[in-house]
Every structure is written in C-alpha cells, then in structure tokens.
Design goal:
The chain is built from four helices and nine strands; from the N terminus they run ααβββββββαββα. The chain has a five-stranded antiparallel beta sheet with strand order 1-2-3-4-5. A hairpin with a 4-residue loop joins strand 1 (99-102) and strand 2. By secondary structure, it is of the alpha+beta class. The radius of gyration is 36 Å and the shape is elongated. It has one domain (58-260). Helix content is 35%, strand content 29%. The structure holds calcium ion (4 copies).
Amino acid sequence: MITECYLINGFMMSMTFSRQKRLYQNVGFTLIELMFALAISSMIMAVMFKVFTSQQRTFEAQEETVDMQDDLRAALYLMSNELRMAGYNTGSGNNPLGIIDAQNNSLQFSMSGDWDGKDNDSDGTTDEPEETITISYSLTDYDGDGDDDLIRTTGYLDNGGNVTAEVQQALAENVEKIEFYYRVNDGTDTLSPTNVQLKLITNIQLSILTRSARSINHMGSGQNFASASGVNWNNPSGDSYRRYFMTKNIFLRNIALAIGG
Ligand SMILES: [Ca+2]
Ligand SMILES: [Ca+2]
Ligand SMILES: [Ca+2]
Ligand SMILES: [Ca+2]
C-alpha cells in the first residue's frame, strides 16, 4: 500500500515535472535569445538603412548633376541661337544694330524685332518696321541665395538708340564663371574690345562654368578648368560641389555679313 502510494506519488510528480517542462518550452525564447535576435535585427536594419541612404544620395547627386548639365546646355543653345541673330537688320529701323557692349563677363547686343510676332516695345503694334530687340547676358545673384546665376535681360532701343524697358530672366542657376572672348575681323582675340573693335566682332568664344546646387561629398573635388582665353577656373580646394564646364565658338553671321558687304 505504501509502495503503491510512492509509485502513484512518483508518477504524479513526474507528470507535473514534464508539464512544467512543456510550459517552459511553450514560452518560446529566453531573454538572452530575445536580446540576441534584437541585436541581429537592428544590425540588419542599420545596414539596410545605410545602403538605402547611400543609394538615395547617389541618385540625388546624379539627378542634380543631370539637372545642372541640362540647364547649362539649354542656356548655351539659346544664347548661341540669339547671338547668331545679333545685328540682324531688315533695313527699315532707325538704330544701328549689333553689339552694344562687350565685356569679358557680360555682353549686350541688338537685332531687328520686326519678325518675331511679339510687340517688343509694347507700343500696341506688333512687328512694326522700326521695332528692335536688345538682349544681354550677365551674372548676378538673381534669386538672392548667395551665388551667381546666368541672367538674360531683354529690352528694346528707343528712338534715341537707348536700351529701355528691360526684363530679366534666369537662364541657369549657380553659374560661377562666364567669359566672352571676342574675335575681331582682323583676327585679333580680345576680352575687352575697343569702341572701334566693338563694331567688327565676328566670333565669340563663350565659356561657362556652373556648379551643382548642393555639395556632393562623395563626388570628389579638385577639377580644373580653363576658359577659352586661358584663364584658370580651378575648383577651390576642399570644395565638394560638382562642376560642369562648356565652351562654344559662335559665328556672328549677320555682323560678319554686314562687315564684309
Ligand atoms: Ca511694337
Ligand atoms: Ca516684334
Ligand atoms: Ca543665386
Ligand atoms: Ca543657387
């Protein structure tokens, strides 16, 4: 009887023990296991975050570089086309048309305005014979954010031949340098034409250096550029902005034709 009791007790105890063991097993993880899993998953998340932000930065940098290049190409395309029209004259206006002012970093010129379907002088008549267009390109901080932008200013010549009613427009942002290098019809190249040379310019070598809106750290620095006249436009040391440089030779066909004829 006592032996039976012991046996029954032993059986009951072993039942209880194995139930407790199962209960422990059902809990799933120990604290150490949990902490280990947490550490691993946060490490994986940190790596994933790093990869994501790095890819995001690369994407943004590429996008910004493409934007900068597109803006400059578009500006240069427009400027080339307009400069080819410099001095264009249908012969019915009162004012002499051509280059008005030529500096190494700005340029102003005029052409006949009786062809473009616009009332350039806002006198209520569109494309009347004496209508003119003046255009200038220069650098100024157009949006007031601390760096220069490439500006196109349009107006017209009044009866006295003065430039008036100018309207400004930004062609490209963050333009650091621009150079107009002039070739006179006798083959002389100059950055500052005399008053006589001003009327005899046949070509303009245009150089423009632009930079990204934001600094792009992993893109590196130390790029060197030289303008058409040979001026060094070196990237300031330690500066991590991305830069883009373009130069183009533009033949002023209307002026060349007028000088030749
Ligand atoms: Ca008009
Ligand atoms: Ca017009
Ligand atoms: Ca600016
Ligand atoms: Ca800017």
